[in-house]
Each structure stands twice: as structure tokens, then as C-alpha cells.
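Annex B. Sample input.
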Amino acid sequence: MRDGLDKISIIVWKDLLTEIRTKELFGGMFIFAVLTIITFNFAFDMTGTAKAASGAGAMWVAFNFAGFLGLGRSISLERDKGSFDGLLLCPVDRGTIFLGKFIGNLLFITLVELISVPIFAALFDLDVFQPLLLLALFLGTLGFAAVGTLLAVMAASTRSREVLLPVLMFPILLPVVIASVRATTLILTRQTNDLSAWLNLLGAYDVLFLAISYAVFDRVVEE
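Annex B, continued. Sample output.
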């Protein structure tokens, strides 16, 4: 157990060091997310009762598209450099490699969200500093990163990977996108009566697809 955790932490640390040295992922993801939020802020009339619903939708659109960008580049860069093939040749269980890549992607996306949320709060004038909102963000991001890591590996070996990844991810991620937006809207409007149902859906989705992604990752990288 401890040996597996050590190997996962090494993979995560490798990805963090690579990003610190190259700065190829976080900067693009953050700029994309902020530009999307700013565009939505000036494109729509963010007043009245629709402000929370529109703001929740804008926030998740920004985070999802930034996530698409980051997930696609995180694997494709390693594929192009040959470092991902080298990782597969290591005497490490393929599930361990998946968990390492998944946790690394989760950290990058979460960091972008944590820095973008205060900007979102300032532009949309919404109270986002709530524990329940952080929980909804985490659950939505967890499912996104689990599915995205698996499909990014699958799409990275194709020529049209930039186009293929969103096409593959969107149908599978539709439940988590809907649940995340609905949960965020309810939290921002302080209508928490039906919130537990959406959070439970997110939690069940995360457990199910994290387990599936872990189980089939070995088959995916062998194709």
C-alpha cells in the first residue's frame, strides 16, 4: 500500500516539476478561464434573479473549457516527447500511473478554479465563499478529471486529438455538468432544499467513473 502511494506521489511530483519548469499548462488554462468569465460578464445582463443561474453557467463553462485545454496538452506533450511511453515501461502498475496522472490533472484544474473564483465573485457580485460551493466545485472537478484523464490518453494517440477529446468527453460528462451547474445555482441562490440530490448525483458519478477509469486504463494504453 505504502509502495503504491510512493509511486503515485512520484508521478504527481514529476508533473508538478515539469509544469514549474515549462509553464505550458497552467498559464493557458488560467487565461482561458478568466477570459471566458469576463466575456460572459459583459455579454449578458447580470442583474435580477437570473444573475446566479447565469453566473453558475458561466463559471462552469469557463472551468470545463479550461479543463479541456489542460487535459489535452498534459498528455499530448508527454506523448510527443516520448516521456509517456517511458513511463509505461517503468515497473509500475498501470492503475498507479492512472492515479498519478489523475491527481496531477486534478491539482492543476483545482488551482485554476481557486484563483479564478475570486475574480468571478468580483465581476458577478455573488457570494461564492461558501463551504457548500467549494464542495460542489470539488465533486464536479473530480469527475471531470477522472474521465478526462482516461480519454485524454485515448485521444493523444490520434492525429485529431484536439478535436476528438471534447467530442469524446462531452456525452460522458453531461450528467456531471448538469449536476454541477444546478448545485452551484442552488447554493448561490441559497435554495438548498434540493441540493443534496445533486450533490449525491455528483458523488455517485465520481465513484463510478473513477473506478471504471482505473479498471480500463490498462486496456486503453495498450491500444
